[in-house]
């Protein structure tokens, strides 16, 4: 079983985050547990196996802004993380299809495209794999895959 490296979401130190050198030049894959991200993960696992490299699984946690009023004080905004990352980490730790592939799970909070690209940059990834998103919001605001493909400085593979 591969180690889990869950990083603290929202932590933005002034120095770059240390990365395990075993995962440098690996494959980064965005994963949220959806069907399209499961297909992207399956593709990324095969790609990592064929390339004999590490797999960096990125989950960008939803942040639910909560406003707290304290009398006449200005509002305070509190990040309330979703606990989906813990569940995803446990599911991945038990997944048979990940056997034989070194992998880590990195949790981030914030804009999905930005965070996946940052992880790709930190690990000097050879490629980023993401699934497609469908729906009205994707058509209006643009899909994560489309925005990432336009802005990333490395190959982006979009899995339908």
Walkthrough of the structure:
This protein has a 5-stranded parallel sheet, with helices on both faces. Strands 3-4 form a two-stranded antiparallel ribbon. With 160 residues, the chain is of the alpha/beta class. The longest helix is centred in the first third of the chain and has 17 residues, at 35-51. Strand 3 and strand 4 (76-81) form a beta hairpin. The chain has helices at 35-51, 84-93, 112-122, 136-141, 144-151, and strands at 27-30, 55-61, 63-68, 76-81, 103-109, 127-131, 156-159. It is built from 5 helices and 7 strands; from the N terminus they run E-H-E-E-E-H-E-H-E-H-H-E.
Offer a few descriptive terms.
160 residues; two-stranded antiparallel sheet; 32% helix; 24% strand
């Amino acid at each position: 079983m591969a180690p889990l490296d869950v990083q603290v979401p929202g932590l933005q130190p002034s120095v770059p985050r240390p990365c395990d050198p075993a995962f440098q030049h690996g494959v980064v894959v965005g994963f949220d547990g959806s069907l399209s991200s499961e297909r992207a993960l399956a593709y990324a696992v095969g790609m990592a196996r064929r390339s004999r490299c590490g797999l960096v699984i990125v989950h960008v946690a939803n942040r639910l802004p909560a406003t707290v009023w304290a009398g006449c004080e200005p509002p305070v905004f509190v990040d309330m993380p979703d606990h989906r990352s813990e569940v995803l980490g446990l599911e991945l730790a038990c997944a048979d299809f990940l056997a034989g592939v070194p992998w880590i799970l990195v949790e981030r909070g914030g804009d999905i495209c930005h965070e996946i690209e940052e992880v790709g940059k930190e690990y000097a990834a050879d490629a980023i794999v993401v699934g497609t998103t469908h729906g009205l919001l994707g058509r209006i605001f643009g899909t994560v895959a489309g925005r990432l493909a336009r802005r990333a400085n490395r190959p982006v593979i979009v899995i339908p």
